What we know:
By secondary structure, the protein is mostly helical. The protein has helices at residues 2-24, 32-60, 64-74, 83-94, 124-155, and strands at 98-104, 107-114. α2 packs antiparallel against α3 and α2 (32-60) packs parallel to α4 (83-94). It has one domain. A two-stranded antiparallel sheet has the order 1-2.
Amino acid sequence: VWGAVGGVPGLLGFRAVNTLDAMVGHRSARYRRYGWASARLDDVAGWPGARLTAALATVAGGDPRGAARAWRADAGRHPSPNAGPVEASFAGALGVRLGGTLSYGGRVEHRPVLNARGRAVAVPDIERAVRLSRRVGLLALGVSAGARLLVKGRTS
């Protein structure tokens, strides 16, 4: 999205914001006063791309109604404002449940279930998710390239 809007400088700016968040945006005593700003800036910068990704997953997935329903119902329950729409729409498109009790590096988190109507994830769903991710990536490339041509054409 930022490449479509701002070309290479847009891409570099987004990458810089995202990298800054990854470096100091986490919650720690050392970076608390500085890290919150980079984390919020990353949330704002990621907002358009996350919504585009969720919309494309809804269109490209096997169950558009399920994807849209899960996105509307569950995205806001996710702790991340940008991962929520993407994960919820993917869960709905694939017809699976995501979330619940998770373990990250030995730390257990209890997150809301996304797409509670879905079934439990099974091994074959990994390949289905990879295929959906590839379709979404190609569609995003097409939308972004098309948008870039429109933006560039208007400024010429």
